[in-house]
Amino acid sequence: MSEKVIITCAVTGGNSAVVAKHPKIPITPSQIADAALDAAKAGAAVVHIHVRDPDTGAPSNRFDLYEQVVKKLRDASTDVIINLTSGMDGELVLDSIEPPKIGQTSTLKTPLGRCLHAVKLQPEISSLDCGTMAFGERIFVARMSDLRELAKLMREAGVKPELECFDLGHIETAKRLISEQLIEAPPLFQFCLSTGYGAPGVPIALQAMREILPQGAVWGGFGCGPDEMRMVGQLVTMGGHVRVGLEDNIYLRRGVLASNAELVENAVGIIERMGASVATPAEARAILGLKKRG
Q1: Are 192 and 148 within 8 A, CB to CB?
Q2: Using CA atoms, how far apart are residues 258 and 25, in angstroms rounded to an integer?
Q3: pTM of the model
Q4: How would residue 293 be classed by pLDDT, with cut points 50, 70 and 90?
Q5: Which of 8, 20, 37, 125 makes the best surface tag, with the fewest CB within 10 Å?
């Protein structure tokens, strides 16, 4: 079991349906930044940031929105590690197979188009989704050429990739990037469990993913919905770091909507009752091999 556990808070996510379910889901840059700061004060060392259209709440990848969030976080007195998603604008939708017809709702862009905000704003971390996979009728595209380019762009910007893995094969893909020296040590893995499309949030899946990690890897994970807090305990037991937040689960308990800070507080309680302690941002930087950016 890890003595120091890093808590990441995923503040708002990229799911459009959640806006109708939670009236206080952070939408505007100011709301997202405030929620991230509240989560940091509650014990999160890292905040994982998506942005949304301020008028509609729809998922967005607009540079100006990221810029506003990052500025407010950096101007604040609260120390927190910023992790910007690079998992947007990678979706392909097919309206038909015969003949193949790309749907107008596709968002697929070049690797630079997906991570321009990370390259320019230079957060300490940016997520890198390591596998092409189907989310229902939507296909997230992560070819090896795309992943190599994303990794190169992040490395040149001095941004540490968080290698998001939804299944065992994604870990093997990430290991290829590491073997090609596109990822600097120590590599950081995030296991994305019980999303409904990849690996389930059960101990055997978590253990299998942990067992095939490369030597020296730093790793953590999360479970979605009712698995969120269950997974916190499992991750800590197995030596991993944890993620909670409204991106993954909107409920504090059955029927009671949560805030990000409340979810972080729950995770802190679980970690401390298990005999571990929560890493500060400074301690998290030491574990992850990061240099603070202001």
Answers
A1: no
A2: 9
A3: 0.97
A4: confident
A5: 20
